[in-house]
Amino acid sequence: MTRSTKKGPYVYEKLLLKIAGKKTSEAGVIKTWARDSQIAPEMVGFTFGVHNGREHVPVLVTEDMVGHRLGEFSLTRKFIRHGGKMQKEMETKAKESEIASAQAAKAAADAKTGGAKK
Fold first, then answer.
1. 54 Cβ partners below 8 Å, 6+ apart?
2. What residues contact residue 15 under an 8 Å CB cut-off, 6+ apart?
3. Whole-prediction pTM value?
């Protein structure tokens, strides 16, 4: 649900105070827990360390992010992978093909250098 237009965007005031009068290059990472704060145009170029519940994830604000919330760019859940028998088979096939291609490249390199020595 979007915020009412008559209320205006919610921007955490302390964040604006932290970046006031600073240049983007000298500010470094600005730590914040305000995941619900919207990104204002004044924040473009700054790097914010947005807390995800465990650590501060660095988020470099660009022009495309204006209007979005800081929490959208700091995920709270870590996706590992989908499991199951098919997934394991696919991983083993990928690993085998990677090994085969590495061996073929090594054989080609050996053939190239072996021909030059003779």
1. none
2. 30, 32, 34, 37, 43, 48
3. 0.65
